[in-house]
Amino acid sequence: MSVDKDFRVSIYKHEALLCTYELHTEFEDGEYVDVSSRHTSGEAFDDPLEDEAIDLILESGLDSGVGIVQGFKIEWVLLNKVFDD
Questions:
Q1: Contact 75, 7 (CB under 8 A)
Q2: Can you tell me the mean pLDDT for 27-52?
Q3: Residue 1: its pLDDT value, please?
Q4: What pLDDT, on a 0 to 100 scale, did the predictor assign at position 68?
Q5: Who wins on pLDDT, 30 or 68?
Q6: pTM score, two decimals?
Q7: 3-state SS of the chain: helix, strand, coil percent to 5?
Q8: CB 44 within 8 Å of CB 69
Q9: Among 4, 38, 63, 75, which is least packed by CB within 10 angstroms?
């Protein structure tokens, strides 16, 4: 079974919202197979911070949550989940 999940990811520094992304993830049989992101507002960040934020989200296994990466607060919320048999 495959599952696609779409998230809204917000990045904060000292409670100030710096930027948002839309994150699309694809899983097959519970294993992560692909991810893509699209910057939607604010200042885009370099790949290492974005990559670490994606790792945080994927490793958490949560549909929504909050974490810290390189001193930035990362908040994500599930927007959509699609199951394909």
A1: no
A2: 85
A3: 84
A4: 96
A5: 68
A6: 0.88
A7: 15, 65, 20
A8: no
A9: 38
Q: Is 22:7 a contact under the CB 8 Å cutoff?
A: yes
Closest by CA to 40, choosing from 52, 23, 26, 53, is: 23
- Lookup: tokens for 18: 């710096």
Non-local (6+) Cβ contacts of 5 within 8 A are 24, 25, 27, 63, 78, 80, 81, 82
DSSP codes of every residue in 34-61 = EEEEEEEEEPPPPHHHHHHHHHHHHHH-
Q: Which two tokens stand for residue 13?
A: 């520094």
DSSP letter at 63 equals S
Place of tokens 């917000």: 10
